[in-house]
Specification:
InterPro entries: Flavodoxin/NO_synth, Flavodoxin_dom, Flavoprotein-like_sf, Protoporphyrinogen_IX_DH. It holds the Pfam family Flavodoxin_5. One of its GO terms (biological process) is heme biosynthetic process. The protein is of the alpha/beta class. The protein has a single domain, classed as Flavodoxin domain (Rossmann fold). 37% of the residues lie in helices and 21% in strands. Helix 1 links the parallel strand 1 and strand 2. The two termini are 35 Å apart.
């Protein structure tokens, strides 16, 4: 079975998650390819998909949104999982007691749930290094109001990412062939 892990990443944190998912899913019977959404020209050769993007202001990046919408018919016919990265910090609940990851779901999860019927959708904590920020993002990131509340660091939970990827791989795994009957019996 050939699996595509397609991602959109601006500064590399989501790329790292996608690569980790791809590595965790590799096992006999699963041929896993990790590629940027914008580099995938013809996804019809894949049997299953894991698609993810960084989320900014509760939205997936444009090339990931376009990938899903452009290939919606194909994705709806095959096993697909979606992931997002973005929330920063170590708190799992906010000041009101709400789950941080659930509260960070991108708007597209609801749309894509109806459009392609994913088997699962997951939000992961992201990473932020203000030294890596460039362009207009750099101006925003260094504004005192943003800079003081936006924690910097790598908050990706590799165990949660590995566990999720292993569950997907288990679901896609080709069952072992039944043992041949014992001819001597």
């Amino acid at each position: 079975m050939k699996v595509l892990v397609a991602y959109s990443s601006k500064y590399g944190a989501t790329k790292g998650i996608a690569e980790r998912i791809g590595s965790a899913m590799r096992r006999p019977g699963l041929d896993v390819v990790v590629a940027r959404c914008k580099d995938v020209r013809d996804p019809s050769g894949y049997d299953a998909f894991v698609v993810g993007s960084a989320a900014y202001m509760f939205n997936w990046r444009k090339d990931a949104r376009k990938f899903v919408r452009r290939n919606a018919e194909l994705l709806a016919e095959r096993p697909v999982w979606l992931f997002s990265s973005g929330p920063l910090g170590t708190d799992t609940v906010d000041k009101d007691g709400n789950d941080v990851l659930a509260g960070a779901e991108p708007k597209q999860f609801a749309e894509f749930d109806d459009l392609v019927g994913p088997r699962g959708m997951q939000v992961f904590f992201g990473a932020f290094d203000p030294e890596q920020v460039r362009g207009v993002d750099r101006i925003v990131a260094w504004m005192p109001a943003i800079h003081d509340v936006m924690p910097s660091g790598d908050f990706r939970d590799w165990k949660a990412i590995d566990d999720w990827a292993h569950r997907i791989a288990d679901e896609l795994a080709i069952p072992a062939a039944p043992a041949a009957p014992d001819a001597s019996a």
